């Protein structure tokens, strides 16, 4: 029998929707920085006087940087199991085929988000590819999935260490050449030695603040759509291709595998005891934040003085510990949210967060639309114009818009507009959209 009806409201796991809503809104805390300011401007906050903007950036970095995206990835991993666990047919396809089709459409939406909406930090393209890769893992037991997540996380750490080791090697070759020049000022360098020297000098130059280049970047982003597109495409191509396969792939795979394991243990579906969630919240945040704050000096030194960072560091602490910092902190935040949900306080907030999470696809792309139109030149052109703290007024406004919009929309419709489009494309048939109003009660005129 054909079965392509949307999941009924009573069948949805409310806590997954709530956590997805929290993660989605939390992601904007970091993304807004890239939407509104240049990377050079953000690094200047670390290099310059440590005022209020520096501390705001530092606190957000420690508490939320990569952690909300990690939680979002975990929930996507849980969603893989949820989709494949239900018998579905549509467009002449069985569940596995529909899943692959679903992921292929997600890849297409990701390309639209990156190449049309011009958000270089898109994750839909990555999720689409990784979801297909993880398809065979969905039947593994939770412990095996956890082991796989740890192994992939270690590979991620290893990749970061490898990059660090390559830079250290370049620095050592540079030092050898400089020592040779000091010893004999008239020495004629070979082509290889010249390359060794210029390679490290290029790295140092790229790490320094270039005011002229920064201004040119801002001018380009405040220009018309064609200019912004030409300026952004190289960065988008790097994120969607080489950087993805070198770094992001391992990051996303590890978190999705962890999410699949946690789902099988009942973590996301609110099945653990209150004591378990309390211990996970305390332990996760304590371990994750300890790693975050211990790694902070290494992270900042890389920005302020890359030569000292490479020469004095044995291990790139921030990069190597990143998978574990993210994993523990994300679990801690999720556990804390579930504890608060169990308390029964603020039912209106949980309803709104659940609506945002149920419409996560629509809301994620809405953030791209709202932010690019506000900051980029073909919209209001505020790129590079706001102070760091002012970015979070925009975050608050977008949060409010999405909370209200999501609740209002789901009052009349089964799911968000892009969720409807995605499902319709996946199943090859237009899905029911409007909620069926309840039939009026018939009251007899005469008793």
Automatic annotation (TrEMBL):
Keyword Metal-binding applies: no
Keywords, ordered alphabetically: Membrane, Transmembrane, Transmembrane helix
Segments passing through the bilayer: 68-85, 106-134, 140-158, 243-265, 277-294, 330-350, 362-383, 389-413
InterPro entries reported for this sequence: Bact_Transport_Assoc, DUF418
Record has Transmembrane as a keyword: yes
Top-level taxon of origin: Bacteria
Record protein name field: DUF418 domain-containing protein
């Amino acid at each position: 029998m054909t079965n392509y009806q949307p999941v009924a409201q009573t069948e949805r796991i409310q806590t997954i929707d709530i956590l997805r809503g929290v993660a989605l809104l939390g992601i904007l805390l970091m993304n807004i920085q890239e939407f509104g300011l240049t990377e050079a401007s953000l690094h200047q906050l670390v290099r310059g006087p440590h005022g209020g903007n520096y501390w705001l950036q530092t606190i957000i970095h420690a508490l939320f940087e990569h952690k909300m995206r990690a939680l979002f990835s975990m929930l996507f991993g849980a969603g893989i199991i949820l989709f494949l666990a239900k018998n579905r047919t549509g467009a002449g396809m069985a569940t596995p085929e529909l899943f692959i089709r679903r992921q292929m459409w997600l890849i297409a939406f990701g390309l639209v988000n990156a190449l049309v909406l011009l958000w270089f930090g898109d994750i839909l393209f990555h999720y689409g590819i990784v979801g297909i890769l993880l398809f065979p893992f969905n039947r593994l037991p939770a412990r095996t999935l956890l082991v796989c997540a740890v192994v992939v996380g270690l590979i991620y750490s290893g990749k970061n260490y490898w990059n660090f080791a390559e830079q250290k090697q370049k620095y050592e070759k540079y030092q050898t050449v400089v020592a040779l020049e000091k010893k004999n000022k008239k020495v004629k360098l070979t082509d290889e030695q010249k390359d060794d020297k210029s390679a490290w000098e290029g790295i140092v130059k790229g790490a320094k603040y270039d005011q002229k280049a920064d201004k040119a970047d801002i001018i380009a982003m405040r220009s018309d759509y064609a200019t912004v597109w030409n300026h952004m495409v190289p960065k988008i191509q790097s994120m969607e291709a080489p950087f993805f396969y070198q770094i992001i792939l391992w990051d996303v795979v590890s978190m999705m595998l962890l999410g699949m394991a946690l789902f099988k243990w009942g973590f996301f579906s609110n099945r653990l005891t209150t004591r378990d969630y309390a211990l996970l919240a305390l332990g996760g945040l304590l371990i994750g934040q300890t790693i975050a704050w211990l790694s902070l000096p290494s992270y900042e030194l890389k920005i302020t003085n890359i030569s000292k960072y490479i020469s004095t560091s044995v291990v790139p602490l921030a990069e190597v510990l990143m998978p574990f910092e993210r994993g523990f902190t994300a679990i801690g935040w999720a556990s804390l949210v579930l504890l608060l949900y169990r308390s029964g306080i603020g039912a209106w907030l949980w309803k709104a967060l659940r609506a945002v999470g149920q419409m996560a696809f629509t809301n994620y792309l809405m953030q791209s639309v709202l932010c690019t139109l506000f900051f980029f030149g073909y919209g209001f052109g505020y790129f590079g114009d706001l102070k760091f703290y002012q970015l979070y007024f925009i975050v608050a406004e977008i949060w409010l818009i999405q909370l209200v919009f999501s609740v209002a929309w789901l009052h009349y419709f089964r799911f968000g507009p892009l969720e409807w489009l995605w499902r319709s494309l996946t199943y090859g048939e237009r899905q029911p959209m409007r909620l069926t109003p309840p039939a009026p009660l018939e009251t007899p005129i005469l008793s």
